[in-house]
Amino acid sequence: MTQAMAIKLPRLQNDLLELFRIGYDAESKGVFRMGFTEADMQARDWLIRKFEQEGFHARMDSAGNIIGSMPGQHSGPVVAIGSHIDSVPAGGMFDGSLGVLAGLECMRTVRDHGLHCQYPLEVYAFAEEEGRFGGMMGVQAIAGELTPQWLETAHDANHMLLRDEMTRAGLNALEALNARVDPKHFRAFLELHIEQGPVLERIKKPVGVVDAISGVYKWLVRLIGKANHAGTAPMDMRSDAFMGLADFAHEIPRIIDEDGTDKSRLTIGWVKLKPGYAHTVPGEAEFTLVGRDTDPQVMHDLADSCRRVLSAIARKHNLMFEFEQMSWLAPQAMSDEVIQAFCRQAEALQLDYEVMPSGAGHDAQYMAKITPTGLIFIPSIGGVSHAPDEWTHWQDVEIGANLLLHTALDFARQSF
Ligand SMILES: [Zn+2]
């Protein structure tokens, strides 16, 4: 009976706590393992040793991804599990690490039960998922989505070049192109991740099965008016760029009502007023606008609507309007086959689950381009993530890891 089989939570807990200590900062109580930093590479070495101590084979590929493997009766295709172990600055314990270490725990559980899977299991700890260099570099390498030009020029917010940071870490940026894996290598890819949002906690369900990952676009918008003396310029003779921005911010709920869905998000996260002086009417408002949805058509509709509304507001306030599209990442549906497998196993384990979208990006969105891929969530307390107080109840960790285990076995079609 596979239902009786379960992971051992204390082992997984211990691994999560041990990994959290690598790059941990006592002052902020967060972890600093940004891609290709010393702490990140130390964590990668730790992980290889961890697999080896358990008797599994592990290696680092040319993109810095760590791959632990367990053979099956056939040489392939492999059932892959994974996530990332890099972090944002002052990150939490679970983001990414959970999906990797739960994969390791799945392998240990299979080994302890003496199961011989038909197909090999592989656990991936992808490199640089958090986008220090503006992408998901490790998984993009595996999916064949990197270009030499990007590898040569990508840099972080402090203008450190990816290629220099990789050299420092003992890697070669251009060789990351060789990390590409033939899609035929894979049978399926499964990722377990914390939700990083408040939905599961609110509806009191322990598991979310993701049906699609939101796409996201980022604009840099400029409303240009005329800077003027805040005392002498009459209210009806101003070209106040901030007034335009404020009007637009108020239009966001209506734009979503008319052209979006309950999965749409529009966010103005960064604003700069010029000249930015208390006694001067703002002559320019520069701001970012980030839009998200899980449906490509809805994303286009939202973008069109934002453009129309911004034009109208600019006319009304006597402003000029221009914008630059910094990025456009299309939404990514998860595989029906894997969604159904997760749901089937959740029912067998008598888990109450929710089929839901993911508003955040994950490694799964690139694996989905090359193999049937699925993503499951467990609740984040208070919806908090990318922060030191990110937390998830241990019983939910156990539930998520067990669902991952049984679904992986479903694909590996174990025989006794
Ligand atoms: Zn993550």
Automatic annotation (TrEMBL):
<dbReference type="GO" id="GO:0046872">
    <property type="term" value="F:metal ion binding"/>
</dbReference>
<dbReference type="Pfam" id="PF01546">
    <property type="entry name" value="Peptidase_M20"/>
</dbReference>
<protein>
    <submittedName>
        <fullName>N-carbamoyl-L-amino-acid hydrolase</fullName>
    </submittedName>
</protein>
<feature type="binding site">
    <location>
        <position position="84"/>
    </location>
    <ligand>
        <name>Zn(2+) 1</name>
    </ligand>
</feature>
<dbReference type="InterPro" id="IPR002933">
    <property type="entry name" value="Peptidase_M20"/>
</dbReference>
<feature type="binding site">
    <location>
        <position position="386"/>
    </location>
    <ligand>
        <name>Zn(2+) 2</name>
    </ligand>
</feature>
<dbReference type="InterPro" id="IPR036264">
    <property type="entry name" value="Bact_exopeptidase_dim_dom"/>
</dbReference>
<keyword id="KW-0378">Hydrolase</keyword>
<feature type="binding site">
    <location>
        <position position="95"/>
    </location>
    <ligand>
        <name>Zn(2+) 2</name>
    </ligand>
</feature>
<feature type="binding site">
    <location>
        <position position="95"/>
    </location>
    <ligand>
        <name>Zn(2+) 1</name>
    </ligand>
</feature>
<comment type="similarity">
    <text>Belongs to the peptidase M20 family.</text>
</comment>
<dbReference type="InterPro" id="IPR010158">
    <property type="entry name" value="Amidase_Cbmase"/>
</dbReference>
<dbReference type="GO" id="GO:0016813">
    <property type="term" value="F:hydrolase activity, acting on carbon-nitrogen (but not peptide) bonds, in linear amidines"/>
</dbReference>
<feature type="binding site">
    <location>
        <position position="193"/>
    </location>
    <ligand>
        <name>Zn(2+) 1</name>
    </ligand>
</feature>
<keyword id="KW-0479">Metal-binding</keyword>
<dbReference type="Pfam" id="PF07687">
    <property type="entry name" value="M20_dimer"/>
</dbReference>
<keyword id="KW-0862">Zinc</keyword>
<feature type="domain" description="Peptidase M20 dimerisation">
    <location>
        <begin position="215"/>
        <end position="316"/>
    </location>
</feature>
<feature type="binding site">
    <location>
        <position position="130"/>
    </location>
    <ligand>
        <name>Zn(2+) 2</name>
    </ligand>
</feature>
<dbReference type="InterPro" id="IPR011650">
    <property type="entry name" value="Peptidase_M20_dimer"/>
</dbReference>
